[in-house]
Amino acid sequence: MIYNSETADQIALNLLEIKAIKLSPSNPFTWASGLRSPIYCDNRVALSYPEKRTYIKNQLVNAIRDNFSDVDVIAGVATAGIPQGALVADVLGLPFVYIRSSAKAHGMTNKIEGKLDKGQKVVVIEDLVSTGKSSLLAVDAIRDSGAIVEGMVAIFTYGLDIAEKNFVDKNCELIALSDYNAMIGKAVGGNYVTQDDELSLLEWRKDPKKWSDGVG
Q: With 70 as the cut, is the pLDDT of residue 216 above it?
């Protein structure tokens, strides 16, 4: 779910302003999966803008305080969730760990870096949710360690149906500060895209694979 509409709109506007979100329906981006997309989102850009970074941090903190009453540890998903998670943990005065995408190949071969004990209650911080697959691998790692995942808070989600299904299947609550719908509203209102671009962006949201195949 979205934390609240006011935050969703402001986050979307902030990300568009600093080009953390880039829109190009006529010259689409290619994701690592091979999917062609009219949108590319890299929220790490916000770390270079203190005012935007602070707003994101404070809204992540507020979302946690409003939705999770009992939290022992904050966990960041590597790599983009690490700095945001560390900032949030510092404000809340909580321990911080981060979850690797795969176990370290040498040394202690850890997948979870930091001290996490069985039974501890964890809120996961994520930068971006697309299908949710990589985000939920972090959830699996935490649960496999014996800790309890209270939920995940993300800066931005594309709001894809497959992501919603994946989070429901994993019984993991997802709260996002902003989403694709809020972003389109701000992109159109701020003249970041044309009306024709808006139609293309909406078509992608309905069926990303069909849209990708059509421009491939």
A: no
Both tokens assigned to 54: 């602070």
Reading the block at residue 124, the tokens are 């996961």
Indicate the DSSP class of residue 2.
Answer: B
**Reduced to 3 states, what is the DSSP secondary structure of residue 10?**
helix
What is the pTM assigned to this prediction?
0.94
CB 137 within 8 A of CB 101: yes
How confident is the model over 182-201, as pLDDT tens digits? Answer: 999 999 999 999 888 999 99
Residue spans of alpha helices (H) in the chain: 5-17, 50-67, 81-92, 133-144, 161-169, 180-189, 195-206, 208-215
Q: Annotate 101-133 with DSSP letters as a single string.
A: SS--SSTT--SEES---TT-EEEEEEEEESSSH
Task: Report how far residue 110's alpha carbon sits from residue 37's, in angstroms, rounded to the nearest whole number.
Answer: 34
d(CA 84, CA 107): 26
Burial class (CB in 10 A: 0-12, 13-18, 19+), 117: exposed
Q: pLDDT grade, residue 109 (50/70/90)?
A: low
List pLDDT tens digits, range 31-57. 888 889 999 999 999 999 999 999 999
Q: How many CB atoms lie within 10 A of CB 207?
A: 13
Give the position of tokens 């609240």: 4
Provide the token pair at 75.
């966990």
Residue 142 has pLDDT above 90, yes or no: yes
